[in-house]
Amino acid sequence: MSAPSPTVLPETCARHGRQATLAAAFERAGPGLHTGRCAQVRVSPAAAGAGILFRRTLKNGCRADVPAHWRYRESQPLCTALRSADGVLVRTVEHLMAALSAHRIDNALVELDAEELPIFDGSALSWCAGIRQAGRAEQDAPRRAVRVLRPVEVRSGERSLRVEPCDVLRISAHLALARFPAMDWTGPVDPETFDRDLAPSRSFGRLKWAVPLKLYSFVTGKPVLRGANLRTTAGILGRRVVGGMSVPDEPVRHRALDLVGDLALIGHPLLGHVTAAHTGHELNHALVAKLMAEADAWDLT
After folding, report:
1. Is 113 exposed, middle or buried, given 0-12, 13-18 or 19+ CB atoms closer than 10 A?
2. Which of 10, 72, 159, 185 is the most buried (most CB within 10 A)?
3. The whole model's pTM is what?
């Protein structure tokens, strides 16, 4: 695939106009949160209209393509996973998808040699650094967005998600954890805000649940949290985060980060105000599916 023009435009001009890809490729490597296996990842420019495509190299040397689209989403514990029509799985895509979406990268090829993307320190900072290093290149194709026309809502007990009309993607997130004060974060999803407020926030969990889940993984053979430790997640012990929070109200910010990544599976930028209370991956994907099913609730600008 030939590289696009290396012209890198200011990100403040990128919200509307033409599609964009990376101006160059970048690489990352590291273990996955659930499998614990090391993955080599190369994120490269892609042609206009290609979207985000995962290309996994299998053990037999064959390659399989998995589109980053909500129709290919498969429910897996504590992550966002995609499975192709041929049955090939790629998991824990949400942090990279969030970084690409926030930096307004519409088209990219993500090549990896394992089932799961690296988790790094549990945040999206490494992906953001790679994207900034590579640069953003506009392409000769219009950038279309899903514009919300009326409110759409999903609920599950105390968990709720609502999207309503707005001229940008804006998120208002709320989370209440036992023994912690209520946490809130509100802001637009643009490159600067994302890198400052959301990208540093890490995957988190209570340490008292980590050991049972690791035992479950060992007994059942299912990869769950095999790569989880205090270097890859923010561990909660009682009333505190071990080692402190990387940003204020880190858990709610990470839920917002995951939400940005899950919304990116729509396949187009979303223009809407999303209000989230205690949300997680399952509810995020339920909102995407409901919004896409209600054709009168949105249009393509």
Report:
1. middle
2. 185
3. 0.93
